[in-house]
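Re: the request from the purification team.
They wanted to know what the chain is likely to look like in 3D before they choose a buffer screen. I agreed to run a prediction and write the result into the notebook, where they can find it.
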Amino acid sequence: MMVETMRKVYPRFAEQSDHGGFMQHDANEAWIELMTNLKKQLLPLSPAADSGVMPSTAANFVEQYLEGEFEITMKCKESETEPEKHQTDKFQQLNCYLDREIKYLQAGLSSRFKEVVSANAVTLGRNADFDKVMKISRLPAYLTVQMVRFYYKERQAVGAKVLKDVKFPLLLDVFDLCSPVLQKKLQPYREKFRERDESAVQRDIAATRLAKQTNVTVNAPGVTALGSSQLAEKDAGFIKIDEHEDLEWKDGPVSFPDDSGSSNSGFYELQAVLTHQGRTNNSGHYVAWVRRSGDVWLKFDDEKVTPVYTEEVLKLSGGGDWHCAYVLLYGPRPVPVRVEKATKPSAVLPVGTTKSTPNNGGGNSSSSHQDMPTD
């Protein structure tokens, strides 16, 4: 139904070839047309009343959740007296250019953020070379990336495709592409990810030390560990497992309080991939791969839908006639926050305590699990 509607709204997608059947069209062009139409139809979403996020000033949903902004600076290379040019520009996707030396998505993205362009120099009265520098000043919650695979061969008068293998990550960090002002704004939220990751590492270290000192099985019910700095409280004769034992990490906000629909960290997770199989943009086959949950993805091959796993999705980076990633959609990674646990706090164990439990024969056997100490 959606395809039929697209062909009615955009007649060029309903064009038929000389051999009958619908003509092949560029899927990224279809995506852009779809976003353009949705901008006219979908109003911005209002944040939950208790979210602490202000209502969006965006005109529509696409602008709110899928549109970012560049800060562009241009400095003349041929005249010191030529004033710098400053401007802003909106974007709905970032382009990854597949130049010969590009092997990874991040390198392809950054390759056009600094370049030399020709522009009018007022003081010289002619065009001159300018250093053009782009920085992202606003990140959308959902980031679309186009792998620029198609180009036009003038001599043969035909569209061609770049088949090379360019790796794309499941987790994308675009902090280095942002302006200094936005980087400063992102930093406190990014620090929460670092704290959570560091606490997980320290928990593992603490768990190992605890197991060695007490012969405790760390995965025993009610026993957790976090942070080697909290391990020994020898004056009290106890090992404290977790100074934050009444707290746990939960997913928090994805947007700034004053910009609903933005990304507040610059960290993204891959949610969907659109691939093309074939040699030119006028032929071949498009397939969509959409994350369902965790490692499980759904492959949409026309009417056929089959489950696949992350390992198969990562093979879509190109390098041959197999499906090549063409459009990537990254979604936000929620900022981790500490909240109160709904369950009881974890145990505090006396040093060297082991628990003995009755066995089936009525006797006592040493157990690797421990309960809380009894008075």
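For the purification team: The first strand starts at residue 68 and ends at 76.
Please add any questions underneath this entry.
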